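Retry 2 of 3 after timeout on previous attempt. Resubmitting structure tokens to design endpoint.
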């Protein structure tokens, strides 16, 4: 076995590989750019080598720099993670020339299947049904428009060397095809060092289901079930689960066997993923093969008990697989939520800055277990696992140079319903401050009836949130529980405050039992009856909720029991109440005495400033292009400028007709969030 492995990556996947290597007794080497000198993966590794400036095309994807780090440290093998150099055959070739093992597939398999155009041609030659498209390289935007019209809109414009949603655009007309081609080409060049583009038909009602395969160099191969990856935004997966709630055993077996056959046809070894589009009748169509470890691999590990990183290392060491297809058992259910540094209230635009608070829920081990070399048929009954793969820490920085993923939060339970409920609680328990993040949106997905029913397609987000995410409005039953909890907590806080002030000792004032809770536009007069075990909060209509908790004033997280059910609240103190966040809702909760409530109702509402005649920068980023000039009359939907952040180009468009009166930024400017880019008459 190897003594030392270099991880040619960063962030959470580098940390993930380090954990398994450590378990196997293998020392690790991290590489890092200027932006990552204090990163978690650097702290976790046994050694670390600096490789250059922050941009990935000047550091992480420069093969010569990575090879220098290997030589300096004497690493015997390299795990590439995902993205960056993970599917770069030139890198695998360079390693082979140096006598260093690549923890991934052979160069020939990368060439055959890692390139999206080549893999589709091979699949077609093998009589695998594929999505209609143009497999040749596309020279320019005019050719992209011509091909798109031949295929028929909508089309998917994709980077040949792409992955993770980078270099991908959907075009519904000629203008979008032209813009999408150039943006995809730019993103592909900066993310992968390869700007080749191809186009295929975009299937409007698909499910995205992928098969995890594992092969060795001795001709053995197995599939480890499937992952449902249909909940995507801008072609980037947001929520995944395993198994899929849609597949039956016959379809799973057919997809799995086809995936393994395809892998064996190209001499594949290591872990890989074959992606399919599946229609409503369970017909499946080959999309592509990812010749690397997938971001969402933890859900497969949680339902199978197989450590995919360990298996990759063992295969790279020349060992045969220790399992056969009969050994693979899918036990329970697992859900993964990708936590991104992006603001869901601003169209999911990237957010950067310091993590002033980063407190993930406690990890809990449970799920399938290996017993005497075999996987047990049953997991630990009644247990819910929580796993958080991350590459950040409290006080660390989220950089503009890399993918905005903060963490991958996973839960496992014996049933899908229990796994989803475990995820709801875990998301509510995850505390993050300092940057915009998509926790509220993830919570909203967990409660969405379409997701709960398992009936989603890849159009889920587009169809269910056509105007973007505007937060969650809690249903009446949930709102009353929050109101009861807030009342009980506020009473505890008021008792604490009066004791500190000395008023209780002086008998000047006692904390009353009658309160009015105001939240989400509603008022609830309540009466609190407290005892040693908790509080009974009675509403004006005679209903009541029993609240128990060990919450103390100042705690930022409240774990409560309301009528026997768990309720987790993130709590922030504000004047006369709390800021409470739960299940995707962000609530300003006010608590008044009955007389205070009467007076508060008379106060005028403070209105926000009018910015309707300004184009504000929605995220910290770099101005790539300004598309208009002062005096131009613009139409609704017209492109105004392009902002780049976290390797993604974002075109800002006019919300309404108007005339440009002032432009405050030019290409090359770095702007902060809400800086005024231009103004209109």
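Retry 2 succeeded. Sequence:
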């Amino acid at each position: 076995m190897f003594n030392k492995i270099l991880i040619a990556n960063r962030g959470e996947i580098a940390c993930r590989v380090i954990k398994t290597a450590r378990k196997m007794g293998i020392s690790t080497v991290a590489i890092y750019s200027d932006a990552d000198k204090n990163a978690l993966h650097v702290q976790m590794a046994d050694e670390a080598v600096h490789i250059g400036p922050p941009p990935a095309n000047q550091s992480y994807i420069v093969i010569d720099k990575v090879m220098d780090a290997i030589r300096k440290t004497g690493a015997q093998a390299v795990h590439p993670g995902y993205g960056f150099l993970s599917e770069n055959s030139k890198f695998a070739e360079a390693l082979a020339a140096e006598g260093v093992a690549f923890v991934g597939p052979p160069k020939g398999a990368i060439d055959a299947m890692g390139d999206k155009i080549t893999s589709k041609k091979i699949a077609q030659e093998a009589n695998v049904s594929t999505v209609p498209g143009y497999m040749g390289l596309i020279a320019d935007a005019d050719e992209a428009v011509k091909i798109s019209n031949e295929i028929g809109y909508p089309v998917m414009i994709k980077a040949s060397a792409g992955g993770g949603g980078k270099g991908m655009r959907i075009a519904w007309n000629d203008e979008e095809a032209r813009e999408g081609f150039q943006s995809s080409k730019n993103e592909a060049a900066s993310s992968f060092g390869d700007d080749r583009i191809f186009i295929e038909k975009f299937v409007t009602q698909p499910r995205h289901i992928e098969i995890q395969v594992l092969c060795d160099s001795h001709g053995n191969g197995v599939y480890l079930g499937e992952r449902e990856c249909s909940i995507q935004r801008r072609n980037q997966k947001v929520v995944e689960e395993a198994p899929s709630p849609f597949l039956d055993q016959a379809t799973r077996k057919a997809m799995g066997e086809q995936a393994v056959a395809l892998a064996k046809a190209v001499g594949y070894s290591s872990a890989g993923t074959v992606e399919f589009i599946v229609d409503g009748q369970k017909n499946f169509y080959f999309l592509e093969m990812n010749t690397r470890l997938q971001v969402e691999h933890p859900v497969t590990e949680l339902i199978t008990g197989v450590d995919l990183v360990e298996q990759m290392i063992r295969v790279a060491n020349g060992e045969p697989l220790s399992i056969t297809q009969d050994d693979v058992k899918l036990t329970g259910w697992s859900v993964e939520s990708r936590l991104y540094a992006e603001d869901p209230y601003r169209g999911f635009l990237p957010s950067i800055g310091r993590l002033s608070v980063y407190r993930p829920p406690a990890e809990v081990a449970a799920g399938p277990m290996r017993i005497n070399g075999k996987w047990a048929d049953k997991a630990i009954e009644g247990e819910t696992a929580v796993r958080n793969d991350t590459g950040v820490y409290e006080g660390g920085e989220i950089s503009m140079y890399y993918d905005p993923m903060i963490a991958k939060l996973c839960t496992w339970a014996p049933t899908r319903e229990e796994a989803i409920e475990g995820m709801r609680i875990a998301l509510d328990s995850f505390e993050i401050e300092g940057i915009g993040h998509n926790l509220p949106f993830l919570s909203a997905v967990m409660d969405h009836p379409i997701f709960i029913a398992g009936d989603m397609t890849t159009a889920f987000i587009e169809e269910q949130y056509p105007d973007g995410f505007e937060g969650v409005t809690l249903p009446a039953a949930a709102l009353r529980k929050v109101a009861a909890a807030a009342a009980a907590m506020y009473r505890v806080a008021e008792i604490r405050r009066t004791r500190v002030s000395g008023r209780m000792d002086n008998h000047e004032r006692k904390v009353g039992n009658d309160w009015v809770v105001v939240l989400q536009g509603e008022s609830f007069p309540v009466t609190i009856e407290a005892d040693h075990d908790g509080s009974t909060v009675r509403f004006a209509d005679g209903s009541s909720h029993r609240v128990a908790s060990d919450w103390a004033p100042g705690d930022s997280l409240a774990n409560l029991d309301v009528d026997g059910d768990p309720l987790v609240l993130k709590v922030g103190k504000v004047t006369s109440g709390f800021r409470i966040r739960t299940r995707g809702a962000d609530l300003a909760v006010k608590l008044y005495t009955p007389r205070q409530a009467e007076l508060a109702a008379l106060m005028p509402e403070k209105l926000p400033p009018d910015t309707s005649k300004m184009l504000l920068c929605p995220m910290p980023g770099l101005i790539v292009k300004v598309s208009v000039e002062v005096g131009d009359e613009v139409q609704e939907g017209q492109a105004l400028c392009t902002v780049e952040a976290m390797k993604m180009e974002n075109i800002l468009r006019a919300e309404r007709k108007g005339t440009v009166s002032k432009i405050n930024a030019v290409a090359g400017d770095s702007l902060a969030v809400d800086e005024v880019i231009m103004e209109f008459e």
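Attempt log closed. Residues 336 and 410 are 4 Å apart (CA to CA).
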